[in-house]
Amino acid sequence: MILTRENIDKLNKKYAKSERHYTAITVHAEIVNEIAQKIAMNAAIKVDSNLLEQACRIHDVASSSFMNNSDKDFDYKSYQLHAILGSAILLDEGVDPAIAEMVANHLLISVSKEDVENYELRIPVKDYSPTTIEGRILAFADVFHSKDPKFNSFESLVEKYQKFAPSQVKKLKDAVAEFGLPDLESLSKKYGHPLV
Ligand SMILES: [Fe+2]
Questions:
Q1: Residue 68, C-beta contacts closer than 8 angstroms, at least 6 positions apart
Q2: Region 26-38: what's the mean pLDDT?
Q3: What is the whole-number distance in angstroms between the Cα of residue 22 and the centre of ligand 1?
Q4: How far is the CA of 152 from the centre of ligand 1 (A)?
Q5: Confidence class of residue 42 from pLDDT cuts 50, 70 and 90?
Q6: In angstroms, rounded to a whole number, what is the distance separating the alpha carbons of residues 62 and 159?
Q7: Over 80: is that where the pLDDT of 68 sits?
Q8: How far does the centroid of ligand 1 lie from the alpha carbon of residue 83, in Å?
């Protein structure tokens, strides 16, 4: 299946458990794509912006099954499964395996085998580091927005990672040094989602 905007929309709708989830996932995907495309324009390496856009718009296709009603009962250890299920869904739907791989590896900034073990993530123990520039940009852009909806500042991400996945702090800082920080204030105003 070619991931046209129409097909992406069909898949996001097909795998969302409710209209509310579908809207949250597609708005989030739109924002992640906007952040990712800005990063791609300034990247030192040539980025396939079309591939990046398709991956951004479909990356949370399986999130609905793992979305809870409030921040309080959010289980980040199980939520990581959404990437693996999403990748399996895309392969099953006949989507480009390169996109399925990007989806499988969009966990936090970059999750190693040791991270899976150390943080007891409920996913098969293996390395999930993104292998392409597009995959790295997708994972990086994704952390700055949550489907609550809200934008996550650099400071709030550092605080969160220090608590549950300290290896991500350095990875976040390295990624910021490489890609820069997205302008979250203007995005927060544009979409009306708070910046926390
Ligand atoms: Fe996401």
A1: 74, 75
A2: 98
A3: 13
A4: 12
A5: confident
A6: 27
A7: no
A8: 9
Which residues, 6+ apart, have CB-to-CB distance to 146 below 8 Å? 28, 152
**Residue 72: what pLDDT?**
56
The model carries a pTM of 0.95
> What is the whole-number distance in angstroms between the Cα of residue 180 and the centre of ligand 1?
19
Q: How many other CB atoms sit within 10 Å of the CB of residue 125? A: 10
Q: What's the 142 CA to ligand 1 centre distance in angstroms? A: 5
135 Cα: distance to centroid of ligand 1 (angstroms): 12
Domains of the chain in start order, with CATH, are 5-190 (1.10.3210)
In this structure, what token pair is assigned to residue 160? 């969160």
Q: Which of 79, 90, 91, 94 is closest to 142 using CA atoms?
A: 79
DSSP state, residue 152: P
Task: Indicate if the pLDDT at residue 134 is higher than 80.
Answer: yes
Encoding tokens for residue 95? 């989507």
Which residue's structure tokens are 């479909």? Answer: 58
Distance CA 135, CA 141 (A): 10
State the amino acid at position 104 in one-letter form: A
Compute the distance from residue 103 Cα to the ligand 1 centre, in Å. 9
Q: Report how far ligand 1's centroid is from the alpha carbon of 104 (Å).
A: 12
DSSP for residue 153? P
